[in-house]
Structures are given as structure tokens and as C-alpha cells.
Amino acid sequence: LKRAKPTRGTQVYEPSQAKAARRRFSIETELRRAIESEELRLDFQPVIELATGELAGFEALARWEHEDRGAIAPSEFIPVAEESGLIVALGRWAIHAAAQTLGEWDRKAGKRLPLCMGVNLSAIQIARDDVPTLVEGALRDHGLTGDRLTLELTESAIIQDPARASKVLEALKGLDARVAMDDFGTGYTSLAYLQRLPIDVLKIDRSFVTGMLKDRDSVGIIRAVLSLADALGLETTAEGIETEALARALTELGCTYGQGFHFARPLGPDAALDYWLSRSA
Ligand code: C2E
Ligand code: MG
Ligand code: MG
Ligand code: MG
User: Fold this and answer.
1) Residues 185/237, Cβ–Cβ less than 8 Å
2) For position 23, what pLDDT does the model report?
3) 237 close to ligand 1 (CB < 6 Angstrom)
4) Which of 203, 214, 223, 268 has the lowest tally of Cβ within 10 angstroms?
5) Which residue blocks in the chain are alpha helix, DSSP H?
6) How many angstroms does the Cα of residue 13 sit away from the middle of ligand 2?
7) Rounded to two decimals, what is the model's pTM?
8) Atom of ligand 1 nearest to the CA of 242
């Protein structure tokens, strides 16, 4: 490592790149341990059906509360997990943990809740793991039917190996699971894939939703995505709805579902079940 020259006084400054590389390396080592020792948990963000205001389900989001460093954001540890291959173990854990929580909610409520759980899948999992067998096992272990899970994947999962992605999605449909295209609009999916692949939902990326109230372009893009989805018979979810005005605008435009801090932040498992119970009372 090249050290920066000491400047003023005696302190030695470390080049920030080296510092970042070191943090990355220790995060990788510690993430490996965190997956094994169950230092990770899931939070659950409500997904609302816009036309009725009803709770449609939740999206499971990984959280890492590090004992020394405090909370580490998914935007930091998911990329490290992907580059190190740890995403395969993390993804297996996430699917099982999400299915387990939904199964527990059903048992606590004494009935099959009409809720669907979204779980994020990385492109690396599609490439390296047997995702359909994994999902099948999680459903079986926790007594769920396939329609209770929505697997969320990004456009990159399809672009990297369309033939494989197609097989995986077909197999997921064979289990009756739902498939969502996450962060839609930020990647390069061709319309042919959207038409050909068994996708149920387009999740419109937060950047377009946030832009809606400020610029006409974002509104135009959202309209275009909604009419594209309509033409292809897909449902839509708007991510990152932070205000009442956005919720109203997206409802009027005919978006199917909404998710965002305006409705609720991601909640722990007990708070999420309470959220459902209080709304369905
Ligand atoms: P995502 O799948 O697009 O998830 C939505 C993200 O938007 C979440 O960030 C959520 O907390 C955040 N969000 C929701 N509503 C709002 C809002 O109104 N305003 C703002 N500013 N943000 C909002 P989070 O939890 O930090 O996760 C970031 C990303 O990390 C996720 O994006 C997903 O790509 C990835 N991720 C999280 N958990 C997992 C996992 O278990 N597996 C994989 N492969 N990726 C995961
Ligand atoms: Mg997602
Ligand atoms: Mg998303
Ligand atoms: Mg997003």
C-alpha cells in the first residue's frame, strides 16, 4: 500500500481508496460470519393496492445490524455479497426466512392470510444456484402455496443469460409463484423479453416516481410504462411513494400497487403482522 505523505503535523493520511478496499474486505469476512451466525434479519415493507387502499403484501428486505459497526445498508453489503459469491448463501437464507415468517403469521392469525411476500433475487443466484428447487423447498418447509411468494429480479438477471433466466422463470411459474421485474426502467430489457417471459409485475424504479412531481419527463415515462404493462397484461408497482400527492397521482394513472414511506417503512416481523391485523380489523 502506498501511504499518503504526512501533511501538517504528524498524522498520516491513508489514501481513501485503500481505506475503502480494507472496509470492503472486512465486510466480506464479517458477512460470511453474519450469514452463519444469523446476524442478518429481514424487515417487511407493506405493499398497498392503490385502487382499494388494501394491504396486498410485503417486500422482505435484508438488514444487517453489525455488533460494532451498527447498521450496514443493503446498498453496501449486497454488492459485496454478489462479488464474493456470498449472495448464494444470503439468498438461500432470505427465501427461507421470508417463507418462515409468512408461515408463522398464518399460524398466529389462525388462517391463511391473503398476503403475498416479495423476496429479492440477485442475478448471481439465477446464474449459480438452483432457484426453483430452493423456492420449492422453502414453500414445502413452511406450508405455503406458491402464489404467496413474489420473486423480484432485476433486468440484469435476464440480460446476462436470457435462456437460463427463461427456464428459471418458467419453473417458478410451475410452482405457481409470482415474478416481478424490479427497478424497471433502469436496465436494458428488450420489450421482446417482457413479452416472452412469464412476468407478473413491473416494479417502476423509485427514481421515476420521485421525479414525477418535478419533471414532465418522469410523468411521461410512468405513463408509458403503465400503458406498456397494460398492453402486456402485467400488474405494476410504484416504488418510493413518499407523499400523499404521489400516491394520489399514481392511483389516478392506474398503477396497481404502491410501496413507500408514505404508507409505511420496512417493519420488523411483529410490527408487520400488527400492521396487517390493525388494517383488517
Ligand atoms: P429494492 O428491491 O428496489 O427495494 C426497495 C428499496 O427502497 C429498499 O431499500 C426500501 O427500504 C427502499 N424504499 C422503500 N420505500 C422508500 C421510500 O419511500 N423512499 C426511499 N428513499 N426509499 C424507499 P433497502 O432496504 O435499502 O434495499 C436496497 C436494495 O438492496 C433493494 O432494492 C434490493 O435490490 C437489495 N436487497 C435488499 N434485500 C435483499 C435480499 O434479501 N436479496 C437481494 N438479492 N437483494 C436485496
Ligand atoms: Mg425489490
Ligand atoms: Mg425495487
Ligand atoms: Mg429500487
Assistant:
1) no
2) 84
3) no
4) 214
5) 16-37, 74-84, 87-109, 123-128, 131-141, 155-159, 162-174, 191-196, 206-211, 216-232, 244-253, 269-280
6) 39
7) 0.93
8) 18
Residue 10 confidence (pLDDT): 54
CA-nearest residue for atom 25, ligand 1, is 61
Instruction: Please tell me the distance between residue 83's alpha carbon and the centre of ligand 4 in angstroms.
Output: 19
Amino acid at 231: A
Q: What per-residue confidence (pLDDT) applies to 185?
A: 87
Instruction: Pull the grid cell for residue 42.
Output: 429481514
Ligand sitting nearest the alpha carbon of 259: 1
Query: Which residue has its alpha carbon closest to ligand 1 atom 17?
Result: 240
Q: Is the ipTM of this complex over 0.85?
A: yes
Pick the residue whose CA is nearest to atom 12 on ligand 1: 240
Residues of the chain with pLDDT below 50 are: none
Answer left, alpha or beta for residue 74, where phi above 0 means left and psi between -120 and 50 means alpha.
Answer: alpha
What CA–CA distance (Å, rounded) separates 62 from 278? 24
Task: Note the pLDDT of residue 36.
Answer: 83
